[in-house]
Amino acid sequence: MTLNEEELKRHRAMLCRFLLFLLGNVQDAEDVAQEAFRVAATKEPGLDGASDPGAWLRSIARNLARNCVRKRRTGWVLLDADALDLAESRFVETGSDRDDVWEARRQALAASLGKLPTGDRELLRRRYHLGQRVRDIAAELGMEPNSLSKRLERLRERLRGEIDADLGEEGRE
Predict the structure, then answer these.
(1) How high is the pLDDT of residue 169?
(2) 3-state secondary structure 61-108
(3) Per-residue pLDDT reduced to its tens digit, 31-53
(4) Is the pLDDT confidence value at 155 over 80?
(5) How far apart (Å, rounded) are the C-alpha atoms in residues 37 and 20?
(6) CATH 1.10.10.10 for domain 99-166
(7) CA distance 17 to 69
(8) CB neighbour list of residue 82: distance below 8 Å, 6 or more residues apart
(9) 3-class secondary structure, 46
(10) Cβ distance 52 to 92 under 8 Å?
(11) Percent of the chain having pLDDT more than 90?
(12) Dihedral sign, CA of 109, 114, 115, 117?
């Protein structure tokens, strides 16, 4: 099976989300996605027998993500095959591979972020959008890194709860 332009766009968005889920870095996710499509193009016959092109692309991306993590030598431990299997199954189980689900969650997140006090939004922006380290933010704010980590954890839990409630997913894990 070959993918037309629309399918390629849809699979690219899904693959970038999956890689962002694994790698936690937009630039790395985009770079690995591009490489995954390059590899997939060289293995075109392999796609012909695949019943799920998304799963096939994710399997290519998983191996490339593992290599990316090794090169970065960061603290991420998503190198284990079982952990990657679990991450991928959770990604698919939550519907994160579907554009409509992803967009609904993105909109729910934006709404939930809008309800937060400015200081909490700024803290989340600095940590997750700008990628600042917890210890650096804590030092600037005169806090202990552990206290800041706990505050970020509580904010993430709050946002997750609000998103799940907005989307009617209270019973899902």
Answers:
(1) 63
(2) HHHHHHHHHHHHCCCCCCCCHHHHHHHHHHHHHCCCCCHHHHHHHHHH
(3) 989 998 888 877 754 544 556 77
(4) yes
(5) 16
(6) yes
(7) 16
(8) none
(9) helix
(10) no
(11) 21
(12) positive
Single-letter amino acid code for the residue at 145: P
pTM over 0.85: no
33: nearest Cα among 21, 20, 16, 47 = 16
- Domain ranges in the chain are 5-93, 99-166
**Rounded Cα distance, 102 and 17, in Å:** 9
Please give the single-letter amino acid code of residue 65.
Answer: A
pLDDT at 172: 45
Residue found under tokens 């706990």: 150
pLDDT at 100 over 60: yes
Q: How many CB atoms lie within 10 A of CB 65?
A: 27
